[in-house]
Amino acid sequence: MLRSRFLWLALLLLLCTQAPLRAQNDVYLTEDRRLDYEAFKNLLALSADSPAPEKEKLDLLEIAARTLVYPITNPQKQSPLTPGSLDKVLTDLDFYLKSAYTKPSNEAVRARFRDELVTASMKILSNFNQPLIAQVNAARALALLAERCGDAKLTDPLVALIADQNRSDGVKYYALRGLGSVLQAARKSTPPGFKDKTAEQKCLTTLVAFIERKPELFERTPKGEIEGLKIIRREAIRALTETRVPALPAVKDSLVALALLRVVSKDGLVPEPRLDEQVEAAIGLCQLDPKLNADYALDYAAQHVGWLVVHLAQAYQDPSQKGEPWKIHAARLSDAMQNWKDVKDPFVQAVFKDALLVLDTMEDGKNPNAQNLALLLNNRKPASTSVYKSDPKSTVKEPTQ
What we know:
mainly alpha
């Protein structure tokens, strides 16, 4: 028996040690040039007002990007026998991303490092012979770059991954996260907003389309697969909540508010949204700025967010829903609704005040009573009958208690 176990272990080790040799010829990427880490760190440390380095020095960033990203393709690091190896690769990458992008530094260095990292990551992603684990971690590298850098020039590669029908949802998950970081960086810039309006349009239309996509489902579709579709759609919703624009003028596929309302009201989406998706979408609606698009009817959105709060209160007291992070849901939605505090519309103000009472009670861990809010929503209606005033068809199904 002992001998048999030893033989199985030896065979397993043989297969694991041989795998890199097979993979190296096809997909195992390496950078043969040695990286001078000291020179690399000195480049990243250059101040924003220092002159652009000579081309020869900037070329070091190509070596650096490949040295940091290509280990993702190493089969030994992908092996279940070396858990945490790929996380270590990405942690090392993030260390240098922080050095390059979390403080003012030389623009020429920042731009070249960004471009070389995109090139190295996309070289992995462009080869469908790469194992899925390598493709997903290359997408993670791009998402990390977007988080630290936030440059709108990352829009095109991220959008391409999301739009590619042949891509796994694992890759798209991180590409969606990357787009959210690009939107967040634009929102936090001075002045806020995209300098590249084409990039903004691509971000918003891609996210709206992804949220509203209708994957083909069957009676035998495994529950786990359906839940996976909801989780990745939630990432798209989260990304979309980074914008404050209800819709881009004259861009019919950028109807941000309508897409978020469809999630909140569970209107026409496949599969039907989960509670956490609805909360994310409601937060996004609360954060939209009517000043950025006068066609947006905040009161129409407020009605549906109000009804979601009623449903949250009901679900809170459902024993089968005890696993939900209720206090977090309530706190986040309450914070987002503070954007309505100074809105002059009397209907929005009424919803705001009654909804906050429900959410505050929930946040305190007590059973919320949403009867007053439900009574308000049943007896009063918003003046607007669609989420975009100029489009009477921009509606979702009527909310119900």
